[in-house]
């Protein structure tokens, strides 16, 4: 069976001030063409279909168009909700849409109930594990402490239990939206840390033939059977080095996996340039970035006049401008943002305790801080669901 694995469409999202709806529509057209021309048997979409719980109307219309075009091909599509989606909204009408071959899986309680498709070699069971917010689903899965690994492991126990009841030789595919250990994050994914831990081990997916992951925006191979498709379009300059692709996956009669990366159409290259303004304007090596979307970081010791306008003369698609003057490490003018770069909320809070009290928090106080951050994230998740 030939699968096309994609995820993280983020319909309705902009790139800085650039409306990406046209590029997203072009991607949908490319997806449909790929399904038709490459003989795809099933499409899997591993969450974050929309960028927010209440998407703009134009994004909903594009999603509707995608569903109609995929259904018209007669190729089944299995789709889950991600942490950016409202599971309830995305799942509206799932029972009716199911009849058209579009299988929306947004309910955690249905993790162990697969979509079963068949090819010449027998059945393939597709299990949809929507994004599992630990604080909201721990009771459903009977785990005592909310955590990503615990709830995902419990969901996979249901998958393996169901798979054990099926005919010998039944192959299996799991769709999941999670941060798996070994994956490389970018700046454009929403933080899903709980209990100070965001990642779950790849071994949680043992026992299935292929795990089609979503959440991280870079296409990645965690193991031969566990892969991220990545987002089809860039959504932050941290993705400047990404190659935006989908996975074309073949499952043979024994469940062995072969995979090929298929490039997605990207409207414009990304470039991150850094240096004094005059050097950026004169450096011939930067000519290749003149048609790119540009993030410029100026290192001039004194902020130059009209930097955005001057950059725009050479790089007309400059979207982001930052200042990071070259200074000695002990210079008191070193920016606050730079001192915080790469530090988690927990680490920043602990540093503040040191600043105020002269000593860091003990283990009990660290746990109090961690629980406070988890409570805030859980509250945000509840608000997203109720919108």
Automatic annotation (TrEMBL):
Span of domain Nuclease SbcCD subunit D C-terminal: 267-353
Pfam assignment, any one: Metallophos
One example of a Gene Ontology biological process annotation: DNA replication
Domain Calcineurin-like phosphoesterase per the UniProt entry, residue ranges: 1-217
Keywords of this entry: DNA recombination, DNA replication, Endonuclease, Exonuclease, Hydrolase, Nuclease
GO molecular function: 3'-5' exonuclease activity; endonuclease activity
InterPro entries listed in its UniProt record: Calcineurin-like_PHP, DNA_Repair-Maintenance_Comp, Metallo-depent_PP-like, Mre11_N, SbcD, SbcD_C
Functional summary from the UniProt entry: SbcCD cleaves DNA hairpin structures. These structures can inhibit DNA replication and are intermediates in certain DNA recombination reactions. The complex acts as a 3'->5' double strand exonuclease that can open hairpins. It also has a 5' single-strand endonuclease activity.
Subunit structure, as described in the record: Heterodimer of SbcC and SbcD.
Family under the similarity heading: Belongs to the SbcD family.
Descriptive protein name: Nuclease SbcCD subunit D
Species this chain originates from: Streptomyces resistomycificus
């Amino acid at each position: 069976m030939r699968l096309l694995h994609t995820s993280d469409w983020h319909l309705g999202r902009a790139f800085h001030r650039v409306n990406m709806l046209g590029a997203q529509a072009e991607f949908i057209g490319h997806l449909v063409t790929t399904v038709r021309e490459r003989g795809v048997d099933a499409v899997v979409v591993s969450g974050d279909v929309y960028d927010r719980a209440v998407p703009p109307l134009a994004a909903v219309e594009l999603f509707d168009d995608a569903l109609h075009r995929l259904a018209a091909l007669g190729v089944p599509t299995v789709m889950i909700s991600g942490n950016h989606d409202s599971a309830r909204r995305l799942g509206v009408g799932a029972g009716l849409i199911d009849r058209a071959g579009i299988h929306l899986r947004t309910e955690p309680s249905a993790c162990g109930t697969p979509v079963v498709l068949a090819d010449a070699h027998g059945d393939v069971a597709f299990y949809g594990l929507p994004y599992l917010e630990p604080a909201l689903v721990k009771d459903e899965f009977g785990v005592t402490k909310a955590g990503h690994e615990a709830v995902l492991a419990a969901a996979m126990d249901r998958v393996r239990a169901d798979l054990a009841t099926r005919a010998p030789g039944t192959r299996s595919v799991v769709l999941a939206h999670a941060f798996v250990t070994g994956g490389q994050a970018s700046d454009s994914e929403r933080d899903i840390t709980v209990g100070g831990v965001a990642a779950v081990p790849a071994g949680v997916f043992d026992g299935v033939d292929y795990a089609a992951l979503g959440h991280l925006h870079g296409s990645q191979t965690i193991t031969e059977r566990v892969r991220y498709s990545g987002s089809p379009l860039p959504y932050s300059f941290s993705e400047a080095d990404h190659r935006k692709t989908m996975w074309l996956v073949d499952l043979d009669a024994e469940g062995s996996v072969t995979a090929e990366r298929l490039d997605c159409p990207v409207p414009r290259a990304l470039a991150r340039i850094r240096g004094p303004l005059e050097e950026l304007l004169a450096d011939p090596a930067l000519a290749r970035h003149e048609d790119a979307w540009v993030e410029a970081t100026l290192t001039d010791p004194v902020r130059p006049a009209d930097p955005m306008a001057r950059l725009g003369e050479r790089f007309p698609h400059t979207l982001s401008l930052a200042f990071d003057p070259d200074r000695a490490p002990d210079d008191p003018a070193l920016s606050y943002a730079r001192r915080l770069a790469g530090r988690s909320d927990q680490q920043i809070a602990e540093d503040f305790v040191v600043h105020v009290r002269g000593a860091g928090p003990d283990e009990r106080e660290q746990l109090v801080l961690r629980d406070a951050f988890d409570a805030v994230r859980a509250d945000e998740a509840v608000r997203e669901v109720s919108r």
